[in-house]
Amino acid sequence: MLKRVLAVILVSLMVLGLFTGCGNTKNTSAEKTPEKSEETEQEKGTTEEKEKKEVIIALSSDSLSLDPHDYDETVTNAINLHIFDTLIGYDARLQSTPALAEDWELKEDMLTWVFKLRKGVKFHNGNDFTADDVLYSYDRAKNNEISSNKSYVANIESMKKIDDYTIELVTPFPYSLLLSDLKNVMIIDKEYTEGMSDEEIALNPVGTGRYKFVEHVKEDHLDLTINEDFWGEKPTIEKVRFRPITNEATRTATMLSGEVDFTVDVAVRDVDRLKSSSDIDVIEQPSLRIIYLNLDGWRDDSPTVQKPNPLKDIRVRKAIYHAIDEDTIIKNVMNGQAYAAASYIPDVFVGHNPKIKRLQYDPEKAKSLLAEAGYPDGFTITLDAPNNRYVNDEQIAQSVASYLQKVGIKLELNLMPKSLFFKHITTLEDKTSFCMTGWADSGGEGAILLKDLLYTYGEKEGYGNVNRGYYTNPKLDELIDKAYQTSDIDERAQLVAEAAQIAADDVAYIPLHFQKDLFAKKKNISYTPRPNKYVFTWDMDIIE
């Protein structure tokens, strides 16, 4: 407990002493500086070197929480992974690499995993990292009410400490995807956090990662400084400031003015403008993130649609699908910077099914299906959507509303910032019947996507936690269970592809598009994006 109190005091002192000059802040001290007739070349070099070690990164939204188990969201995860480590890491191609576990072994029973932990690792407060911290973190991820990490530890049947630097995890069946799951669960300091409230943990984050927490002013900036005692290769960037700038025009302006060094989520309308600058590079790549609509079509009563629930009729779900002109949304709203989607599963993932096709835009077909289902005059429903999380999310939601109103569906838009949105649409809250959201996964496995997004909610602990439409199909559940027990990649791909086809036939959800990842950077910054869009400053360097 004493170490924890001293660590909190230390964090407070760091807040006062660091980053006072970040963000081009001018020196306002009244003390007169001694005159210098000439600056030596050595002093110039030292000053330039110091300036090169800091980057300011503009984000489209702020971190939702610095508690690494609270939210499973890209911006939040990417920031938290600067502060915390996981047992298993991954490289730029998303392949598993040693992190806090330096080695691991799967026993002959194909159920028992033994992980050798890295020795000599220190938390930012000076505490030693041991097996106790791993077991404590996994238990918290599994059992804490706020945890969004439950699905990643759902298939750990038991865990135990063998010694301070060895743990054993046992799965209920041969589970080849365990390493993919463990890439997502960050490790916290048991001694430091035990007895803390969730809020205290979020306000005073202490990990073993490459950077230490300095200060977070909500919706303004989040400052980090290098962890000089990091166990691995240290980044070249010593100080990082993340700046959430939700307004697209402002985000572009700060990049053009040089106020920030790097921008995530370039406004699609400003791509050409930024490309025309001689000081800026724009980076584009296909995204793993799908934007889609959830429909609560499997319950008699649903909170924001008239009763009886019209979404239970597959003809109504098909009508909604046919009513939306996704190609026009991509052209006019996304400025061509997106790809029409037919399934949750990207084409580079195990289990992608190329036979699944989008339902064509056909408003007359939509009207006919509504009439057949007994809704010739449509019905009333609310669409919940964020207005600052995904690229042009508010405009996309408005377009969806416009298309549905044209076929007679009276749609009320409920737009909100992401800080409110994700709590609102969680299955635990049960406040949404129809919502627009997005999802991306770094594991490369379609089985993981379908387990999280389509497996029957409440059927199995850690499964279907983001099945916000309460979709259920026992055959799909059975196929996902089999896929999780199948080590042969081709066989697993076939099982997942079959499950994906079942969901498409049921119109379990309505896919809209995969985003395109768009970044802007100053030309003197070297950076190659990762497929999952996680922006890590240790991937950056300053070019002389």
What does this structure look like?
The protein is of the alpha+beta class and 544 residues long. The protein has a domain of 230 residues: Dipeptide-binding Protein, domain 3. Helix content is 31%, strand content 21%. The chain contains 18 helices and 19 strands. The strands form five sheets. Strands 1, 8, 9, 10, 11, 12, 13, 16 and 17 form a nine-stranded mixed β-sheet that branches. A four-stranded antiparallel β-sheet has the order 4-5-7-6, with helices on one face. Helix 11 runs antiparallel to helix 13 and helix 17 runs antiparallel to helix 18. It is globular. The relative contact order is 0.14.
Helix content: 25-40%
Outline, from the CA principal axes?
globular
Give the CATH superfamily of the domain at 287-516: Dipeptide-binding Protein, Domain 3
Task: Supply the number of helical segments.
Answer: 18
Q: N-to-C terminal Cα separation, in Å?
A: 46 Å
| Overall SS class | alpha+beta
CATH level-1 class of the domain at 287-516? Alpha Beta
CATH architecture of the domain at 287-516: Roll
Q: What is this structure's SSE topology?
A:
Blueprint: H1 2-17, H2 41-52, E1 54-59, H3 74-83, E2 88-90, E3 96-98, E4 101-106, E5 112-117, H4 131-143, H5 150-153, E6 158-163, E7 166-170, H6 178-182, H7 190-193, H8 198-203, E8 211-217, E9 221-226, E10 239-244, H9 248-257, E11 262-264, H10 271-275, E12 280-295, H11 314-323, H12 326-333, E13 338-340, H13 363-372, E14 380-386, H14 393-406, E15 410-416, H15 418-425, E16 434-439, H16 446-453, H17 474-484, H18 489-505, E17 509-522, E18 525-526, E19 541-542
Parallel strand pairs: 1-10, 1-11, 14-15
Antiparallel strand pairs: 2-3, 4-5, 5-7, 6-7, 8-9, 9-10, 11-17, 12-16, 12-17, 13-17, 18-19
